[in-house]
Amino acid sequence: MDRALIQSGVVFEYEQSDNWINKGLFRLKDNFYHSYSSRGIHLENSSEYHLVVQNHFISIEDFLNKYNLSLGSEIVDIFEQIEDYYSYILKPDGFLPTIGDSSRKKINNKNKKYTSLLDLDAGIAILQSKNNSNPKRSTWMSFVCGYSTLTHKHLDDLSITLFYNGDDIFVDSGKHSYGSSPARGYVRSAKAHNTIVINDKNYKLPKPKIAKDKITITDYASNQIYYFVKGRNFAYEGVSIERSLIFFKPDVCIILDRIMNGQSQKVSQIFNLGPSTSVIQKDINHTIIKAPNSHIHIEQLNGADELVVHKGNKDKPYAVISEQFSKLTETHQLEYIVNGDKVFFLTVIRMGKDNDRVSNIQFDTMSNILALEVDGKSISIVM
After folding, report:
1. Are 292 and 276 in contact (CB under 8 A)?
2. 211 and 181 in contact (C-beta within 8 Å)?
3. What transmembrane ranges does the database entry give (predicted)?
C-alpha cells in the first residue's frame, strides 16, 4: 500500500503528490523500526519470516532508488545486521529451525558463526559449539522465552531445540497452516514444544507490553567452559515456572526446571524428537534415544512419576511436526510426568555414546547451587 502511494505521488503531478510520497516513506520507516530489535532480528517470532520481511524491505529500497528515493542510511545500514542473523540462527546443516511459523528451509550462508547470541526483545538465545574437524556436525541449541509481538507466536516459552553431530535431536513443530484446523491448533500448543506443560493445557499469552513481567529471559552468562541461560514463564494461572539451562561445550546440557503450584497438579516435561530419532531405551531415570549419527542419553536425576512415549498420530494430531506447509510428519514425544505443588526436574542430556565428562552432579535446593565435576574439575554454579 505504501509503495503504491509513493508511486502514485511520483507518477501523477498533483498538488498533494509530495505529501503522498512523504506519507508512504514515513509509514515504511515506522513499520521497519517496529519490526526489528536493536540487533536486527525480526520480531514476529519466526526464523522464516525474518527472511520474508528482509526480502520485502530490500525490494522496497530497490524500488525507491529508481525514483532517487531511499529509506535512509540509518535503515539501510541495519540491513547488514539483518543479514548477519543467519550466521547464528542457521543450524550447522544450513537449515533454518522451525521456530514459530517456520518451514524447514535451507539458506546459502557462507559466514556461519559458532558463538552465542542473546536478544531479549526477540526472546531468543542461540548457544553453539563448533566442531573444527567437521563444522556441519557442530552443536547448536536454541532457547525461546519472551516476545515483543503476538504475530506468529507459538506457546513455546522456555522451549529448546537441539542439533548435534548432523542430527536434529529435539525439534520445534513448524507452522503447518493458518486458520483453526486441529493440526494448526496442535503445532501452536505448548505440548508441541520442548518445554514445561501444566495439566496438559495451554497458557494465555499476555499482551506484549505486560508480557515481560511474566515471560522473559532473566539471566545469561558465557565463558570458555559453558553457556548459561535462564528464563521464566508465569503465564499459567497460579503457577510459576523457571528453567535454567547450562550447556557444557560441546556435548552436555543440564536443565533445571522449578515449578511452584498453588495446588498439586500434573507437570509435564516435554521433548519432541526429530523425525529420524527413535527411542531405544525407555526408562524414567535414564532414557536413550538414537539418531542416524549419534546416541543421546537423558538422565532424570530427581526422578519422575511416569514416562510416556507418545507415537506420532496425524489423524488426531499429536507427536507430529510440520516441516512443509500443510504437511505433517509423525515422530515421537517424551513426556516426563510429576504430580505435585512444588516440583523440580534436574535433567542431564549427554550427547554421544559414552559421555561421562560431567559427573558428581548435586543440586542444593536451599542455596540454589549446582555442584559438579567437568573433565575432572570441580565447579559450582548458582542456578
Report:
1. yes
2. no
3. none
CA–CA dist 103, 142 (Å, integer): 16
How far is 194 from 144, CA to CA, in rounded Å?
10
Kindly state the helix (H) or strand (E) to which residue 346 belongs, with its residue range: strand 332-351
* Dist CA 310 CA 184 (whole Å): 19
| Per-residue model confidence as pLDDT tens digits over 282-323 | 999 999 999 999 999 999 999 999 999 999 999 999 999 999
DSSP label at residue 143: E
End-to-end CA distance of the chain: 50
Q: In which element (H, E) is residue 74 found? A: helix 73-76
| Degrees to nearest 5, angle at CA 62 with 61 and 64 | 65
Question: Mapping DSSP to helix (H, G, I), strand (E, B) and coil, where does residue 5 land?
Answer: helix
- Would you state the cell numbers that stand for residue 225, as one nine-digit string? 567452559
- Greatest Cα pair distance in the chain: 78
3-class DSSP state of 229: strand
Q: What is the tens place of the pLDDT at every residue in 117-142?
A: 999 999 999 999 999 999 999 999 99
CB 271 within 8 A of CB 279: no
pLDDT tens for 85-95 read: 999 999 999 99
d(CA 117, CA 347): 23
Band (pLDDT 50/70/90 cuts) for residue 110 is confident
**DSSP three-state, residue 230:** strand
Query: Which SS3 state, helix, strand or coil, does residue 7 take?
Result: helix
Mean pLDDT of 265-290: 97
Of the candidates 37, 36, 35, 83, the residue with the CA atom closest to the CA atom of residue 58: 83
